[in-house]
Amino acid sequence: MRAAFESIAFRDSAQASAILAEILKDGRPGLEETLADLLGESFDANTALVRLERYLATTATPSAILDRMAAAPRFARMMMTVFGQSQFLTDIVCHNPEYMPWLWEEAVLDESRPRDAVLAEILEHVRAVSAFDEQCGAMRRFKSREILRIGVRDIVVHASIPSITEELSNLADAALEAATEMATAICDERYGTPIDGETGERAGFVILGMGKLGGRELNFSSDIDLVFIYSGNGETTGGRSGACGNAEYFQKLGELIIKAVSGVTAE
User: CA–CA distance from 201 to each of 55, 151, 193, 198 (Å)?
Assistant: First the structure.
């Protein structure tokens, strides 16, 4: 074990020594001291180091990551905090290794993102593809990246709890709005436009967020409780599958929205 790490209580010192030897073999100035400081502060130095090794094995640019860790101790601290504190966030960056440089270079970490900005970006992602399943995949990739960003704001930046819950609620709002747009396009193509029998106009539709979403208090493990409401009975104008009553149209719409936000995909 290198002298800089001898005082750190690794659970498996032989494993830690082997990992450190590989990471430090190219002699990057400053990296050994930075890692020793960060691992010394970690609640579980062994786990943090193993997760760093796992991440370096998944990224296409491990040398560039280590170069940046050596040159920018704050970047190294962000990484090791994620690896030391969260298996969930570690899984996200190992599945999408490009997200770690994105966090450092582009992500908004020092303030909350407005709901409209989150909505505009998620719509850009889902509109870039046309098939429903592809749109669901795009939505999940965006969600994972945003959850990572919000998680880093929580455990690294130490943003306030109201700021974190507001951001999680904004993300849920944006995902639901994107899912509604996706589902409406499918239902309109199949059944035509739903017409309110009283007004003669397109029937209105709204999603009410109840519970923690309604109170803007979502946390990372919250379910979202929803009520779907449409404005009035009537019939659709007809599409590829013919016409149907508004009740059937909006039932199909709700089913597609639920599938869009909660169905299992490759992501």
Answer: 54, 43, 9, 8
Are the C-beta atoms of 170 and 113 separated by less than 8 Å? yes
Q: CA-to-CA distance for 235 and 244, rounded, in angstroms?
A: 6
**Residue 21 in 3-state DSSP?**
helix
pLDDT, one tens digit for every residue, the chain (267 residues): 788 889 998 999 999 999 999 999 998 999 999 999 999 999 899 999 999 999 999 999 999 999 999 999 999 999 999 999 999 999 999 999 999 999 999 999 999 999 999 999 999 999 999 999 999 999 999 999 999 999 999 999 999 999 999 999 999 999 999 999 999 999 999 999 999 999 999 999 999 999 999 999 999 999 999 999 999 999 999 999 999 999 999 999 999 999 999 988 888
What is the DSSP secondary-structure string of 29-53? TTHHHHHHHHHHH-SSHHHHHHHHH
Q: Which residues pair with 157 in a beta bridge?
A: none
HSE-up (13 A, CA, CB side) for residue 167:
24
Inter-helix orientation angle 31-41/73-85, to 10°: 40
How far apart CA 11 and CA 44 sit, in angstroms, is 8
Farthest-apart Cα atoms in the chain, separation: 80
In whole angstroms, give the CA distance from residue 142 to residue 158.
22
pTM: 0.92
Q: H/E/C letters for each residue in 202-215?
A: ECCEEEEEEHHHHC
| Residue 243 near residue 174, CB atoms below 8 Å | no
The token pair at 45 is 């130095």
